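Hey team,

Filing this mostly as a record. A colleague (T.K.) asked me to run one chain through the structure pipeline before their review meeting, and I want the input and output archived in the tracker in case anyone asks later how it was produced. No errors, nothing strange. Just documentation.

Input sequence:
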Amino acid sequence: MQNETEKAYFPKWIIVSSKLISILFHPLFVGVMMAAYLIFIHPDYFVGFSEKAKMLKLLAVINNNVFFPLLLVALMKGLGFSKSIFLTTQKERIVPYIGSITFFFWTYYVFKHQPETPRIIVNMCRGMFFASSAALLLNNYYKISMHGIGVGGMMGLMVLTVFDGTLYTGLPLLVSALVSGLVMSSRKVVSDHHWFDIITGFLVGFLCQLIALWV
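Output structure:
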């Protein structure tokens, strides 16, 4: 981890703010934010869906992509397989990565076989599956930033929604860029990640969303 001398260069309010940003934009939560944007905010993708149908789609994402991965991490901590729920070492991240790959794939598989589900959210879930699989492989070599992967995926999704012709404003792209900068800077402040870990994480998340749609 960063030593206390290195962290002392930052005012306390920056450290506290960085911790809050890291929690709020945890990669699992970012996936839900991406789904919520497509379902409730984007003007085209879910036109004609009832509010109940929209909520059921979002709950499916929350259940498979947040609840089960967090439950797995809690069980690992309770059974003594990890020292912390924050998964500070590469070894502690292996099982959660495998679990996330399984849960993300299941969400993708279910949505894929629901003909009424817009293709964009199917591909979003496939991109998350690709990103978690890539993260597991890269975790063997260095501790890639999961937060970087999360915001990279968000940025990739926003690029797709702008350039597929269904959105006529660049505001979502601008907001995503600002959030990505905040989150990556926050992780550099309060984690033991190097910039290489964070930036490559961002690129993995970004590229996996593009690949999920275009390949």
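Quick notes for T.K.: The chain has nine helices and no strands. The first helix runs from residue 4 to 7.
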